[in-house]
Write a structure and sequence with these properties.
Layout (H helix, E strand, L loop, with lengths): L1 H7 L2 E5 L8 H13 L3 E7 L9 E4 L2 E6 L5 H6 L1 H11 L4 E4 L5 H9 L3 E6 L3 H5 L7 H21 L2 E4 L2 H4 L7 E3 L22 E5 L8 H9 L8 E5 L7 H6 L7 E3 L5 H9 L1 E6 L5 H4 L4 H8 L4 E4 L2 H7 L5 E4 L4 H13 L1 H17 L3 H15 L26
Parallel strand pairs: 1-2, 1-5, 2-4, 5-6, 6-7, 7-8, 9-10, 9-12, 10-11, 12-13, 13-14
Antiparallel strand pairs: 3-4
Helix pairs in contact: 2-17, 5-7, 9-15, 13-16
């Protein structure tokens, strides 16, 4: 009880300039886990359709504060970090935990004033910069090198870094990083089996919609499924750039696409509950090849087979656990063929889904990552932790994926 009492006096401020209040990793996993452990948690995030500017609500023990969301990217990069950090300072936070690279300079400033500051590295941002369409080609390499330097300085200077994948964790000093992988909330999908598998007539894609995430190939592939003309592709997410939707709508396969826009967690669960399979396709770029996209683990948690890009890490998860099919992500014919096989072999496909859910339960569940996060916070929360390095955190992604029969 004394332990919880001490935690309840610590005000944890999670801050994001580019995510949403319903974000799976930030809110539903990290914030809710910390609140359940007794911390006083606030999440400061730009407003959206469900959370107007200036609104403050409490969900699952977490206070969510909405600040202005700027539509133009430049204002988001320059103004939003200042607005968010000022809001956090007004709340007199004890620990500041931020989730976007553009917040690093202000995080370093908070650190110089003795604040306990954590950087949450969701993605390999220096490599991601190399494929940002809004950055001129001649500036991408210098911008990538600059971001790598800034992140390294942050890793050496802040109270600690939370990394979402082993690859990202290796970019920071080993004695200052905690590997908290973005695995699925198994319980989130446990009750969603209302539609019998053999009656489902949709294939799902949930996530960012862009050309480097094979949006064009997905639409083209559903248009090639001639044996099952009543099967459609459900796409949920935000297009980047927004004009991409017009390009996709001009493709013949678009007539079999149901675009549902940005969805909250209830919407995501509903989509997966009516789907025969989930798509996890990316262009073969280095930042994607070494990624661990949450959609992969959520499809598995929902008990549906996956069609994934034929990358080594994806194969390690999908093929060794026999929970889906890996295909060359740019090969439209291969994607369509994999879809047709899953549709034609319902019993085998359903068994793939069961094996995927079993793998999540055994290996890829948030429950273990939650313990790592809480242990990391326990160290950061110690008196004097604002001036001390955290001890090293074990890199755990050494356990091989579960094989059939294990």
């Amino acid at each position: 009880m004394q332990h919880l009492s001490r935690q309840s006096r610590l005000r944890v401020i999670h801050m994001s300039s580019g995510h949403y209040a319903d974000d799976s990793r930030i809110f539903w996993k990290e914030c809710v886990s910390l609140a359940r452990a007794g911390y006083n948690v606030t999440f400061i995030v730009p407003c959206d359709d469900l959370l107007p500017e200036g609104c403050a609500i409490v969900r699952h023990g977490v206070r969510i504060v909405a600040v202005q969301r700027y539509s133009e990217r430049l204002w988001r990069l320059l103004a939003t970090p200042i607005v968010i950090v000022l809001a956090g300072l007004r709340l007199r936070g004890s620990i500041f935990h931020f989730h976007d690279a553009e917040l690093i300079p202000l995080g370093l400033l908070l650190r110089t004033f003795g604040k306990r500051v954590i950087y949450d590295a969701h993605e390999d941002f220096p490599r991601d910069v190399l494929i940002k369409h809004w950055i001129p080609n001649r500036l991408r390499r210098p911008a990538s090198l600059t971001m790598a330097l800034i992140e390294w300085i942050a890793g050496c200077s802040l109270s600690g870094v939370v990394a979402a994948t082993p690859h990202i964790a290796r970019r920071f000093p080993s004695d200052r990083v905690a590997l908290v992988q973005n695995f699925a909330l198994e319980s989130e999908f446990a009750a969603y089996h209302d539609v019998p598998y053999q009656d489902r007539r949709t294939v799902a894609y949930v996530g960012g919609i862009s050309t480097d995430r094979c949006a064009i190939e997905m639409v083209q592939s559903i248009g090639r499924i001639e044996r099952f003309p009543d099967v459609s592709l459900v796409i949920a997410g935000i297009a980047d750039p927004p004009s991409l939707l017009e390009e996709l709508a001009a493709l013949p396969g678009w007539r079999r696409v149901a675009y549902r826009g940005q969805q909250d967690r209830t919407g995501v669960r509903s989509i997966l509950a009516e789907s025969r399979a989930g798509l996890v396709l990316f262009n073969p770029l280095q930042s994607y090849i070494e990624s661990q996209p949450i959609k992969l683990f959520e499809y598995m948690a929902a008990g549906i087979p996956v069609i994934a890009a034929d990358f080594p890490r994806f194969r390690e998860i999908v093929e060794l656990n026999r929970c889906g099919i890996c295909v060359p992500p740019k090969d439209v014919a291969a994607i369509a063929s994999a879809l047709e096989w899953l549709l034609a072999h319902a019993a085998e496909a359903e068994e793939m889904g069961r094996r995927g859910r079993k793998a999540v339960t055994s290996l890829f569940s948030w429950s273990h990552e939650e313990r790592v996060l809480l242990d990391f916070y326990e160290r950061i929360a110690q008196p004097g932790a604002a001036r001390q390095k955290p001890p090293p955190t074990t890199n755990r992604m050494q356990t091989p994926p579960m094989r059939q029969g294990e």
